[in-house]
Amino acid sequence: MQKKRVVIIGSGPAGFAAALYTARAQLKPVLIAGNALGGQVSQTHEIENYLGFESLSGMELVQKFQSHVEHFGAQVVYDAVTEVDFTKGSPFTVKTHGETYLADTVIVTIGADPRKLKVPGEAEYIGRGVSYCGTCDGFFFRGKDVVVVGGGDSALEESLFLTRFANSVNIIHRRDTLRAGVQLQSRAKKNEKISFTWNTVVEEILGGDDGSVRAVRLKNVQTGEVYEKPTDGVFIFIGHVPNSQIFAGQLATNDNGYIITDQRYRTNVDGVFAAGEIQDEIWRQVITSAGQGAAAGMSAIHWLEEHEDELQPLEEAVQET
Ligand code: NAP
Known about the structure:
Largest sheet: 7 strands, mixed
Bound molecules: NADP nicotinamide-adenine-dinucleotide phosphate
CATH architecture of the largest domain: 3-Layer(bba) Sandwich
């Protein structure tokens, strides 16, 4: 059992930014990294839109985040949270595979994952033609032909963004009606680079001899016809899945499972904060998540200042339990 002033759950940009701010406030935060250090960022081939860096890989950025926070006294733990108890108020219990933490404040930055198609070839070609982020990877498809899977706002917004680079963007949707808002629909339908393939699902993503995507195998769900469509890239926008299941029944979420926070990144539990993609279903950028994490870190610092008189010394609290 360890008692901490601040426990941060998640090692994406929001988590590291929260760690930086709370570490520089001398709070010695512990950041529980989860199963994949850096989350979605570490899987990003190249990042060109994080301020101050013209180009670096996601993994490089995560390593910089880690050495920065450790320099100021944050502790990064390679472990995953298995259970939390926020029901009795602060201090909260956070259990990992290897440790139990008693935390005066908790900052939840556990992120969301792009929903996967779960078809053969998808996992294999991530970063080699398969992408879940047009803003991150569109630039690498200049003059290329790409397909986009999905029919919601993200699919259309990202398709429009991709037309800045790609020669053509074909939107593959499983129905013949788009879920996206009418304005986006109208902009997409007017764009000469965008075409639609209706009532169609991707059955497989196929690679070429060079190890990158060369085609998709499609199935028309109405006629049953199966055929190959050559493409240089497959952008998948079929929604995100926030990793909020572990907090079910404790932290309030919206209908899509995103944790609800106020402008100070406070959740419904006093002393528990959330930042980044676990509570933001709109922006999903490294830079915006980092900003939100910094703000959540500052909110936790303020919370600890306001409750200074009630906080138990760290050693005493552990002996009592
Ligand atoms: P979404 O609205 O849930 O749309 C997901 C799309 O993917 C739907 O068209 C869905 O098809 C399709 N889909 C889901 N699972 C699939 C599967 N296994 N195979 C093939 N297709 C599948 O997700 P989103 O577009 O990411 O949007 C999420 C939220 O963010 C929404 O509330 C949206 O309004 C908001 N958002 C807003 C903006 C904006 O306002 N500018 C931009 C982006 C996102 P069906 O239609 O058949 O269900």
